[in-house]
Design brief:
Blueprint: H1 31-40, E1 43-49, E2 55-65, E3 68-74, H2 78-84, E4 88-101, E5 109-124, H3 126-140, H4 153-157, E6 159-165, E7 168-174, H5 182-185, E8 192-195, H6 217-220
Antiparallel strand pairs: 1-2, 1-4, 2-3, 3-6, 4-5, 4-8, 5-6, 5-7
The structure holds flavin-adenine dinucleotide.
Flavin-adenine dinucleotide binds near residues 110 and 170.
Amino acid sequence: MTAIQGESLPAPGSTERTVIQRLAEKTVEDRRVGYDILDAGFVAHVSVADEHGQPYVVPVGYARDGDEVLFHGSTASRLFRGLASGQPTCLTVTLLDGMVLARSTFESSMQYRGVMVLGPCRVLEGADKDRALEVITEHLLPGRWSEARHPSKKELAATLVLALSLHEMSVKVSAGPPEDEDDDISRPIWAGVVPLIETFGAPVSAPDLVEPFPVPDYVSRWRRPSPPYEPGQ
Ligand SMILES: Cc1cc2nc3c(=O)[nH]c(=O)nc-3n(C[C@H](O)[C@H](O)[C@H](O)COP(=O)(O)OP(=O)(O)OC[C@H]3O[C@@H](n4cnc5c(N)ncnc54)[C@H](O)[C@@H]3O)c2cc1C
């Protein structure tokens, strides 16, 4: 995990635009909790509008690097070019921890940990771009950078690498049991939480391996770093 450099950044959910209004008790002001969520996730959703103002939400692989989120896309993508031009964006990462079965459908919900980040992106070039690609690769595929071929000049030219500051962010965590209305608790209906745990399956070798390689240790030992959040941690 990359260290937090900017301890002086505003607490999550403390700027005018990030104060959580709806179910405000789910606000987490501890920046480290937000960074742990980012470090446990693989996919971010990034908003961007096209030239007609039509909004899109684009899923991307990403990595946290200090107080920024890094992600990449094609230089040929009009949406990525929009982000590169400094268009304001909103990035979210959500980890789903469980399904909450209340006695009523109204109170039924999900356990989740979510981060929302606001701001414009900046384009990374040169050594910063090279380093960012390594950081993204190592977050998504730990141990892979030292083994896989690195991007060629042509591949680098086709890749836009963007950084989004974690300056303005919010963290919302929903944990705990169902919260039924008092009148519903006496109903003879099971209620509770079913945890949802994402995990890797057994590796499947590519059919075109040039020789029968054993699966590398860093692949067979790979585990998802996503401990469930306990309130009050
Ligand atoms: C897996 C999952 C399922 C959900 N399902 C529903 C659903 O079915 N219906 C529903 O109404 N809501 C659902 N939510 C909650 C939803 O994400 C919003 O928090 C909620 O709709 C309130 O939105 P708002 O814009 O009115 O919030 P406000 O509280 O007015 O938002 C103000 C600020 O709070 C912050 N914020 C809001 N939501 C989040 C968030 N999720 N994570 C981090 N920061 C946040 C942002 O900075 C935002 O600008 C779900 C969330 C998750 C993670």
